[in-house]
């Protein structure tokens, strides 16, 4: 049985949100787990949730 990439994606809304962040200037800084960074802030994606890195937010303040 052959599956397509569209069938493998589970978090369509998360993918759309990440695409919006990338369009606003965020960048991918890691892939396992997915890590996004912008202006001293960073987030990781775990189990379909975008989690802010509190330590990076405190450094940026």
What this model shows, in words?
The termini are far apart. The chain has a domain at 27-61. The protein contains three helices and four strands; from the N terminus they run ααββββα. The longest helix is centred in the first third of the chain and has 12 residues, at 12-23. It is of the alpha+beta class and 61 residues long. Helices cover 38% and strands 33% of the residues. The chain has a four-stranded antiparallel beta sheet with strand order 1-2-3-4.
How is this fold's topology laid out?
Blueprint: H1 5-8, H2 12-23, E1 27-31, E2 34-38, E3 41-46, E4 49-52, H3 54-60
Antiparallel strand pairs: 1-2, 2-3, 3-4
